[in-house]
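Morning run. Coffee first, then this:
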Amino acid sequence: MKGIVSDEIRGYMEHSSWIRKMFEEGIELKKKYGDANVYDFSLGNPDLPPPTQVKKVLADITANVDKPFSLGYMPNAGLPSTRAALAEKVSREQGVEIPASKLIITCGAAGGLNCVFRAILQPGDEVVCPAPYFVEYGFYAGNYGGKLVSVPSNQDDFSLDIEGFRGALNEKTRAVIINSPNNPTGRIYTEEELNRLAEVLKEQSAKNERPILLISDEPYRFLNFDGVEIPSLFQLYDASVVIGSFSKNLSLAGERIGYIAAAPNFPDAQVFMAAVTMTNRILGFVNAPILGQEIINQCTDCEVDMNRYRVRRDLMAQVLSDAGMEYYLPPGAFYFFPKSPIEDDVEFVRMLVAERILAVPGRGFGMAGHIRLAFCVNEKTITDAAESFKRAMNAAKG
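And here it is:
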């Protein structure tokens, strides 16, 4: 008898996210050794509490919850007041004016990406991205018959290989997705890189006789430790959208609140925004959570203390240096993506597990030979792991 689960999903389950595998491995290790004796760098789950303003907003919501429709449905695109507040924020970040009509509220950045892919993809279409990349991109594109095509980044600093993109684009390409600051490398792409990428996209769009969408996935935008410029995509390429969330800057990862914003001169903007508003509904999201919308309505300019993450980055850099690991110092996000000291990154992750360190192999992000370490953990976890890193490196060197 055939199973009830589709072959496609069975395949996904067999090759499921390495992040989740390590997260589950950590649960077992913590049962055996205790939480304090396991150094878990596997999951990008921010541990800092939300800003105090979030608590105040929640108290205000609670005080008024007995009013009619206080927790009811709203337009699929989101509360008008929240869309307007977010449009102002995105306008400041992008350096161009974005009306509320070109922004919708979604169930996190992941929900936003699924809305966009559902709106633009047909079976056989391709989405191109630099590697390494957030592993779920492939699943999101595959949900709608699309295929993810990766272009390896330059390994010394994870900069974009523009000629690699030129070779990857074709008549099937519907979108290119970048993530800056990047998960898992922390790389922030420069204006020169993005300008060159935009020119390549314009050339291929002309050949295809339809625009290739350029998507910027920006949930880590505020985590810019060295104050480098994060260029405005909207000023470089008309057929571009920015997708963001408040999982990191407000520590609201579980509340699932994000947005899609389209460039001022986006082609057929009215049709596109109507399409993603519809996909927001028909994918079953209906509308983004109202609690999250009310929070960001009053907290668009709030953030957790970025300096806490900067301190952790610098601590992790010292620990890795002392252990003899080779790494690129991330200017953004909260991940390191160091080189594995042996060719088999999965085997090195096993060596780390033997020392009660949880990391994720780089092949889970489309680039073997590296590991990912999330440093959104308390400082003591980082410093206490120092000797375990040294022992794992010694084991790897034989």
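The mean pLDDT is 94. Good start to the day.
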